[in-house]
Specification:
335 residues; mainly alpha
Length: 335
């Protein structure tokens, strides 16, 4: 075979090899679209599933806030700008007239004074008595569980049922005066006397709700390390110093929480006033929340009642904000 023939044979072999390679290795640009998409990540990644689960969990709470908080507040703002006659269904836009009427209301000062007395009395007695009960029941002794249940049991009782029972007990010939008569003391008509009506309402509210604060304080006290108490006793610290320098600073977050809850609850107390005294005698127990009810539903002043409701909302938000801002001075380790 000559050199020329050998060269042609080698060229043909190379051509056949290239043809086989092209046949075995298809062009990626000509591959089906389904084959090219297999490298893409799936749409429902772990992060997206977690985000969706989080939104699903908060949806009920968010719907409740929108339906029962935001929408009612917006409606109250709208009603406060109108004069609404419920019987005829007519609404007349009056602008800021209802807000101007606040300054001309001769009863509003007495109502705000009664609200301050009621709220202050409930907050001071509730927090102090709840802390005292928690300190006493935090010790190990026989019957501690029974007393914890006893003091907490009024919380689970219906507000109306609890108030009705105390209404009978505080009557002129009720159980309280009967017990006082045993020791030779003539009790007053607690709910019909202006000097004792507010005191009766405050005590009734405190007895029923003190169990919540007691449980919160009890949980906080059980979280205080026992080593701190032992070290303080070794250093010669007394019970008073231990309580003021160790216990109170460490449970101060719980004190802040109970203060906010108690203030908001006191400003919203309605059933106790409505069932026990009906705001009387005169205006001695007419707090702001009951005055809103009177103006809106008894006197049919929906616009003015909505204005008073917005005032109550402003007080709640303001007091909560003040307490939250003061947490840096009250709460231990709060920056």
């Amino acid at each position: 075979m000559t050199m020329t023939g050998l060269t042609k044979t080698l060229a043909k072999s190379r051509t056949r090899a290239r043809t086989r390679t092209r046949t075995r290795t298809p062009d990626a640009s000509r591959a089906p679209a389904r084959a090219r998409d297999t490298s893409r990540p799936p749409f429902w990644t772990t992060r997206r599933r977690d985000v969706l689960a989080g939104y699903l969990f908060i949806t009920p709470q968010l719907a409740g806030v929108v339906l029962f908080v935001l929408i009612p507040v917006c409606l109250a703002i709208w009603y406060s700008l109108n004069d609404w006659n419920v019987f005829t269904g007519e609404q007349t836009f009056v602008g800021a007239d209802n807000y101007a009427a606040l300054a001309d209301d001769p009863q509003l000062a007495s109502v705000l004074g009664a609200t301050a007395v009621f709220c202050g009395g409930v907050v001071v007695l509730n927090i102090s008595l709840g802390l005292l009960l928690a300190v006493l029941l935090n010790r190990r002794f026989r019957g501690a569980t029974f007393f914890r249940t006893l003091f907490f049991s009024p919380v689970v009782v219906s507000v109306v049922a609890w108030t009705l029972v105390w209404g009978f007990l505080l009557q002129d010939n009720g159980g309280v005066n009967g017990l006082l008569g045993v020791v030779g003391v003539e009790g007053p008509n607690w709910l019909q006397n202006g000097d004792t009506a507010m005191l009766s309402v405050i005590i009734t509210q405190v007895i029923r709700s003190v169990g919540v604060n007691m449980v919160l304080f009890l949980a906080a006290l059980q979280g205080v390390p026992a080593q701190l108490y032992e070290a303080a006793r070794i250093d010669g610290a007394g019970s008073r110093v231990i309580f003021t320098r160790i216990t109170l600073p460490l449970i101060s977050p719980t004190v802040l929480l109970t203060a906010i809850i108690t203030v908001v609850g006191a400003l919203q107390s309605f059933a106790q006033i409505a069932v026990l005294t009906g705001g009387g005698p005169e205006l001695s127990t007419t707090v702001l929340v009951y005055y809103v009810f009177q103006q809106a539903f008894e006197f049919n002043h929906i616009g003015y009642g909505s204005t008073l409701a917005l005032m109550l909302l402003s007080f709640v938000m303001l007091l909560t904000l003040v307490q939250w801002q003061l947490r840096r001075k009250w709460v231990f380790h709060e920056e």
